[in-house]
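Attaching the record inline, Q. Sequence:
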Amino acid sequence: MTLTVTRLTELATAWDSVLERELDAARALRRELHAAPCISGREHPTVARLVEELSDYVPFETVAESGAVGRIGPRGGPAVAVRAELDALPVTELTGAGFASDNGAMHACGHDIHQAALVALVRSAAQLELPVALVPLLQPREETYPSGALDMLEAGVIGRYEIAHVIGAHVHPGLPDGAVSAAGGFINAAADELEIRITGRGGHAAYPHQANDTVAAIAQIALALPEVVRRTVSPLRPAIISVGTLAAGEGAANVLPAEARIFATMRTTDPDDRALLFSAVQHMAQGVAAAYGAAADVRRIEGEPALINDRVLAAGADDWLARLGVEGADAMRSLGADDFSYFCNAAPSLMMFVGVRTAGENPQPGLHHPRFLPGDEAIASVARALMAGYLAAAELALGIEHRRGPAETGDE
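Structure, as predicted:
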């Protein structure tokens, strides 16, 4: 076992050195990818470019329509997968960068950074002898449904590539620049969409007694949603419902519409709360609609489950980050969602967050903002986070018991 631990330490040192030599090419690739973003479901040019960059090192197969997967290292036995998302957002870029997109889409969530980091990591890993196989997952459709992660799982990549663990890293402006958060337990919420449709009898606004006021009903429901959360879910378990769309009528001031609609997002952190809260929303909406003489149809569009990081992997990655000279950060948890959660459900996995900054911006633009533009130095930070995750997962795959390093002070 001691020889294996020593081998991993030597691998980390050599890998970090080889990675440095790949970073210049990765920076150029990032700018190329940033200038030509592809939205969800149309990532074929992006995946083709990444496969081209890695074609001398990894044989890939197409999965999930516009994704790809490959494997390097030992031919048999467990593997560690590293994931990068392919899709951009339908956002018009306002960064003013020389490599800004002008096609109406934008890498406003940092996926171009993730892609370049994965390429640098895999190219450098291919020049070394890995003790555990490495599987690059080039995943489509992280930003929209149907989920690219779920489609990859349903294509059988876990079993066919013998994936024991999946590692991901995502840039985030809420952390110190270059610092990495590797925390166990709950990280992101389950994300469902709610559609509440109220139907009744329309009529003239001067004769409301002869109609059902669907506008008043939908307004009451919108205002009641936070109260439903408060009365259903323990305040010790984060949950929220936010209304994104409230629609009724067609622009007339004197017409009571026969139909009104709410489109909302429901975020929960506990599987039991997920079902219970939806049931409570149904009960409330139907009761309010009935009080107005109308009817309510409440539909849930199921999204990603809660993202739960493996605690042993998180502790191991935190230790390896310290050995690689990467600053650690406090646990990053939110009611945001990421379909990486499907990988966490399929195998003990780890999603980390990497602090970034957009130069010249104060306050810092957030994810999905048209001015969000992390510096090229984030590529190295993301690549080292993925490397630390691989090393921690390799320890588990090789049966090495994780020992807390000096940088770890206990459970987060």
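The radius of gyration is 24 Å. The first helix runs from residue 2 to 35.

More tomorrow.
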